[in-house]
Amino acid sequence: MALFSQDALNPGVRKREVFGWAMYDFANSGYTTVVITAVFAAYFVGGIAGKAEWATFAWTAALSASYAIVMLTMPSIGAYADLRAAKKRLLAIFTVGCVLSTAALAFAGPGSVPLAILLIIISNTFYSYGESLTAAFLPELARPDGMGKVSGWGWSFGYFGGMLALGLCLGYVIWAQGRGIKADSFVPVTMVITAALYGAAALVTFLLLKERAQPNPRALRENGFKASLQQLQRTFAQARQFSDFMWLLVCAVFYQGGVAVAITLAAIYAETVIGFQQQETMVLIFVLNLAAAGGAFAWGYLQDRIGHKIALGSTLVGWIAACVIAASSTTKGQFWWAATIAGLCMGSSQSAGRALAGLFAPQKQLAEFYGLWTFAIRLASIVGPLTYGAITWATGGNQRMAIMSTTVLFVVGLLLLQKVDVQRGRAAAAGAPA
Q1: 96 within a domain of the structure (yes/no)
Q2: What's the rounded Cα separation, in Å, for the pair 33 and 17?
Q3: Which of 418, 411, 306, 429 is nearest to 365 (CA)?
Q4: Residue 72, SS3 per DSSP
Q5: What is d(CA 93, CA 272) in angstroms, rounded to the nearest whole number?
Q6: What is the distance between the alpha carbons of residues 320 and 13, in angstroms, rounded to a whole number?
Q7: CATH number of the domain that 306 lies in?
Q8: Which of 93, 169, 193, 405 is the most exposed place for a label (fewest CB within 10 A)?
Q9: Do the Cβ atoms of 256 and 376 come closer than 8 Å?
Q10: What angle do CA 190, 195, 201 make, to 5 degrees?
Q11: Is residue 8 part of a domain?
Q12: How many Cβ atoms are within 10 Å of 189's Cβ, its own excluded?
């Protein structure tokens, strides 16, 4: 069988279209890698907020505010996109919003905490909207028995986008530091680089990806937003029919909370606890992305072979090990082990969860169900990092205790995953009324 087999795709779907879809993962990964993980997060704490005791908590609070906005609005936006067949159109709008607000982060310098927080809230909200809508295309592209592979293709390819953005920024940072340029001058340039790459790569998506959904006649006759809210109410009323999807959402709130800690606080932990320099941190995140790409790609094939539930559960065991090693690390070498394991589990766990959500989503409600999926993972992105920030603040900066507490999130997620019955969940999706 070919590595990228046509057999994994739905009838009528061409590989070039899947490439276009995967290019969005490639495009937006630079935002999470450079802005949320490797560069701007540490710069916010050390440069903009001046290493104040409340700085880490302020960073997690800003992200939590954006996630709260997404939680409250994305399910309705997803229902609207389904009824109006507007996934691609809305994706374009949200992409422009994220690109412009990311570039605007270049204006955030030392002391400009309110501006930095505002722009992070705006850019991360638009990023989250885009991530949810692009995921809703997955069941249109992949057969049910190829969902893991295709999700893995996109997620692994996406990490190469993150590595390209980080590599370009790292090259510039090394050049700038060699000329004595300070962080408050070179970090803004990395924001512009990231925004430009995001916008350029996303153009490929809009050129190649098709909108296969058809507008619902009711949405054309009635107010689109009112119809979307009514559809969302019907879905919640039918929640018992989709019990396995609901259990997956609850499971995701916990384990994705732990993943969010790794994404948003890895650079801060590496620099403030382990003693990494900014260049070393960027190299660390680069390698972490490389491991994540390999994990997402390989796990996609394994997931379709051994089953989605087992594949996802095994990654959560790996996350538990990574947290324990990170909390006990006293040298950079030891922390490298934790980061490598986390990288392998990061891509595989996120890709596996996205594919499993796609199996449980009725064909006529893909954006809506992925909107609910986004609600869960954004709630997780509030619970995880905000708990970490609060524990750090309450313990006078003890981040080792905070990272060890993250282990609990993965343990609970692993236990809740046992409630999910994949075959029952797929049957419920197949039997949903059109």
Answers
A1: yes
A2: 25
A3: 429
A4: helix
A5: 37
A6: 38
A7: 1.20.1250.20
A8: 93
A9: yes
A10: 125
A11: no
A12: 15
Q: pTM here? A: 0.79
Q: How many folded domains does the chain comprise? A: 1
Q: Which amino acid is at 342?
A: A
The conformation of residue 106, written as its DSSP 8-state character, comes to G
Entry field: residues in the chain: 434
pLDDT of residue 88: 94
Is 321 exposed, middle or buried, given 0-12, 13-18 or 19+ CB atoms closer than 10 A?
Answer: middle
Kindly give, in sequence order, each residue whose CB lies less than 8 Å from that of residue 85, ignoring residues fewer than 6 positions away: 211, 213, 214, 215, 216
Q: Rounded distance, CA 108 to CA 292, Å?
A: 30
Q: With respect to residue 2, please indicate whether it lies within any of the assigned structural domains.
A: no
Residue 54: which of 389, 427, 404, 414 has the closest Cα? 389
Q: Is residue 6 part of a domain?
A: no
- pLDDT at 239 (0 to 100): 59
Tens digits of residue pLDDT in 100-151? 999 999 999 999 999 999 999 999 999 999 998 998 898 888 888 788 888 8
What are 243's two structure tokens?
A: 């019990």
Q: What one-letter code names the amino acid at 415?
A: L
- How far apart (Å, rounded) are the C-alpha atoms in residues 75 and 380? 16
Instruction: Note the Cα 420 to chain centre separation in Å.
Output: 22
Q: How far is Cα 179 from Cα 383, in angstroms, rounded to an integer?
A: 41
State the alpha helices, DSSP H only, in 3-112: 15-30, 40-43, 55-84, 87-104
Backbone angles phi, psi at 142, to 5 degrees: -105, 145
Helix axes 113-135, 366-394, angle to 10 degrees: 150
Three-state DSSP at 196 gives helix
Residues forming a β-bridge with 7: none
